[in-house]
Amino acid sequence: MRQKNISHLQPRPVVAVSGRPNVGKSTLFNRITRTKDALVDNFPGVTRDRHYGDASWNDRDFVLIDTGGMHFDKNDTFSESIFAQACRALEDADAVIHLLDGKAGLSPFDADIIRMLRQIQKPVFYAVNKVDGHGQEGRMDDFHTLGMDRLYPVSAEHGYGVHDLLDSLTAGFDETGETPGPDLQSDGTEIRRIAVAGRPNVGKSSLINRILGEDRLIVSDSPGTTRDSIDSLRRINKIPYLLVDTAGIRRKKKVSQKLEKFSVIKSLKSLDRCDIALIMIDASEGMTDQDVTVAGYAHDRGCGCVFLLNKWDKVEKDRHTLKKYYEEVKTAAKFLSFAPIMTISALTGLRALKIFPLVEEVYAQYSSRVGTGPLNRILGQAIEKNEPSLTRGRRIKFYYATQISSRPPLFVCFVNYPGAVHFSYKRYLMNQIRAGAGLDKTPIRLIFRQRPNRKRPRNPKLGGKPGRKS
């Protein structure tokens, strides 16, 4: 569930897909990467940040970057930032696929972009999209006036011509750098997958930019700036972290636009594939019901959690302020009472890098395994101290327990009447496991099962057939 292919961080060729808004860049990205990672909608300007994905063609592996539409619109407050992000992607790339719109036809701005592309010292492949077959290749005639040596007719939606484009693209790749090693980390260190989650405009993108030390993500005071879930990798203290910036999760009744609904769905999927969720809260506004909802999403998906009280620099403080905030969070999100809390400021950098030692504590517990012997000793002492209540006049018997998985730790306890264990007694046993096994900062799961039936002894009085004792 949490497997994420991050091999785009290997030294593979990098290919950027550029073009005006709504020419089909994200559709082409999804087709080449064979995913649905990039949001697609008929509304222009859907893609804002750079989006990375892994692709392979003719046994050559490469990285594809989906960029925002290159244009300037005085009515669009993001157009300048989107253009800057697209230009940065072009700088990072080893080759470029520039997409033109065969259905809408030639635009004056196409010539401006192509003049810019001719100045970069890397291969550029010009493709005219929305050409669905040989009969529609006449749509390309106007584009020949721009003076390109070759135009590739393609249909990103239906796949027409994409094979020819990829054949030409990958033919120029240096075979010495195309195949990655078996693991990104030569020292065998596992990558920690960290989702940065929260309501809109709580500072998620600002925090990642602060950690990365660059403007990797577009930041604005306007809620809803981030729409895709964007991955970034950073080593901190020699440990690799995959940071996933998620779209802000609004209350359901406020999610009206189709596009924003998809953003929320992608945010929830990001939580599914991450180990730890950094749940950001705007400390200047305090804990809200929606913050609790976001925390609940992370908890339901089995993520380890850390609460980050952001914008701490804006809070008026006295000696009781910190304790008051901590109590507010613990009270509002009782189901995450084990989750650590930290105050930060993404704007000033206050304690931004101190998040990671705390993440490591959570991750170590989140990935830990408890031996069957120690686990049963913990539960034995707990049951001896506080026996479960009778059910229908019978005592619940606990036979043994074992851990069956980690991330988060999952324990199964075999009993004679699984359905009779009261939820309060289950909570008691979980707390005892936490205390006894040192799992005070991670979610744990405890399930009860009927002990497998053993073959019962034959009873000669009942004709030698196995059965209940008389």
TrEMBL record:
Q: What is this protein called?
A: GTPase Der
Alphabetic keyword roster: GTP-binding, Nucleotide-binding, Repeat, Ribosome biogenesis
Q: Which InterPro entries match?
A: G_ENGA, GTP-bd, GTPase_Der, KH_dom-like, KH_dom-like_a/b, P-loop_NTPase, Small_GTP-bd
Q: EngA-type G domain: which residues?
A: 13-177, 192-367
- MF (Gene Ontology): GTP binding; ribosome binding
Source superkingdom? Bacteria
Q: Which gene encodes it?
A: der
- PROSITE patterns in the record: G_ENGA (PS51712)
Pfam families (alphabetical): KH_dom-like, MMR_HSR1
